[in-house]
Predict the structure.
Amino acid sequence: MTSLFEEVPTTATPDDIPTTRVELKINGETRAAQIEPRLLLAHLIRNGFKLTGTHTGCDTTNCGACTVLYDGKPVKSCTVFAVQANGHEVTTVEGLATASELHPIQEGFKDEHGLQCGFCTPGMMLSAKALLDENPNPTEDDVRWALSGNLCRCTGYQNIVKAVLWAADKMRESAPADEEEGA
Amino acid sequence: MYPSRFNYEAPTSIEDAIALLSASNGSAKVLAGGQSLIPMMKLRFATPATLVDINNIAGLGDHGPESDGSYRIGALVRHADLEKSATLPEHQPLVASAAHLVADPIVRTRGTFVGSVCHADPQGDWASVMVALGGSIVAQGPGGMRTVQVKDFVSGPFQTVLAHNEIAVHAVIPPAQGTRAGGYLKLERRVGDFATAGVALALDMSGSTVRNAGIGLTGVGSQTIDASEAAAALVGSGLEPEAVETAARLAAEAASPRSDHRGSADYKRHIIATFVKRLAAKAQQEEMQVA
C-alpha cells in the first residue's frame, strides 16, 4: 500500500491528516493506496505507483501531457482527484506495450518520427488509443480533431498525425478479416 | 498545485447529497465533471471544506426528449455524450452544433452540460445555448424541486441563484413551436481557449417563417447576454436579408465586449454581427433543402 504525504508540505504530522483508502485497476492490476482526498490522479500514478510515463506538463488542464484512460476514455489526470478513481480502471502509457512487443501506436510513433523531446507523447498515444478504439478507420481530420486537446511544442503535429494513421492501418490489417467484412 | 484540504463525500442518492450540503452550511461544493471546479480549487480561487461528488448517483446520466416535447439533460451528461449522440441533431440542432466546440476533446469526456451552466462563466458556451433556447435548470433542495430559467439562473459572473443546499439535477429545453433550427458559432484562437466571441441562434420554424427565436452571446460581457431584441427582429420573418441585417445589428449592440489580447471591442461586435448572419443563412439553406 502506498502512503502519499511527501507531495504536500504541511505543518501537521501525517497522523493528523485524514486519509481515505482507494482501490483501482491500473493497467489491469488492482492497486490500493491510502491517500488524502486532494491528491490528484496524476500524482497518485507518478509518485504513488511510480508509473512515471504519465507526465505533468502545465498542471492547468491545458496541455494534455497527463492524459490517461479512465474507464477507456481519455481524461487529464491533473484534473481528476485520485479518490474519484476508486473502483475504476485506469490505463497509462505503460499499459500499451506487452513484455515482448510495442503497441501499434507506439510502433507508429517510432516509424513515423512522431516525437522529438517526447514529453507530450504518452498523452498523445492515449488520446490516439481512445480514438482508434472508437473509430478504427479515422480520416486525417478525425485524428487532428481527436488530438486537439494535446499540445506538442516540437513536431508541428505533422508526424504525430502520420503516426496515428500508420497505427490505424496496422491495427486494421491485424484485425480478423471477418470482422472487417462485418460477417 | 494542490487545492486546500477538504472532506470528500460520495453519496449514492440525491437526498443524501442534499443532506450533506445542508449540513455544510454553505462550505460545500458539488463535484460533477470537475473540469472547471478542480482547476479553480488548484488555484485556490475555490476552497470548499467539503466536496460532494455526485458521480455515484444513478439516474443523472441520461438525455432525451420527454413526452411533452421538451428535452431533458441530466446532471451527469458529459459534453462528449452530446457530441456523439446520433439522435440529438434532429431534436436539438443548436445543442448538437455547440457540443464539439466546448473546451477540448479530453475535457469533453469528463465535463458536464449542467455543471458548465452552474459554473456561470461568462465565456461558457452552454449558458448562451440555453438562453437562446429559453431553457431552464431544475434544482432540487430539501423542500423539493424548482425550475429556474437560465437567464434568471445566472445572477452574475460565476454566480447563480442556487441555494447552498440545492443541486441542479437536470436541464430542460422547452418544446419547439414548429421545427427547431439554429446553430452555434464560436471564434477561438485555438481549441480549448476561451471564446473571443460566440453566438447561439435558436429558431422555431413553421415552413419558412420564424415563429420563435432566441439569441445568446458568449464572451462579450460580464455574463451571458440574452440578445432578445435582436431575436425579436427575426420573429415573423422568412429570414429575409433586411430582417437578418437588423437582428445582426441589434445583437452587436447588445454585446458589451472589452478590448483585450483577443481583439478590440469593435472587432468582437463585428464577429457577433457576422455570426448572426452566417447562422441565419445556414438555417435558411437547410430550410430550403427540407422544403
User: Anything to note?
Assistant: The CA atoms of residues 71 and 260 of chain B lie 37 Å apart. The radius of gyration of chain B is 19 Å. Chain B touches chain A through 28 residues (CB under 8 Å).
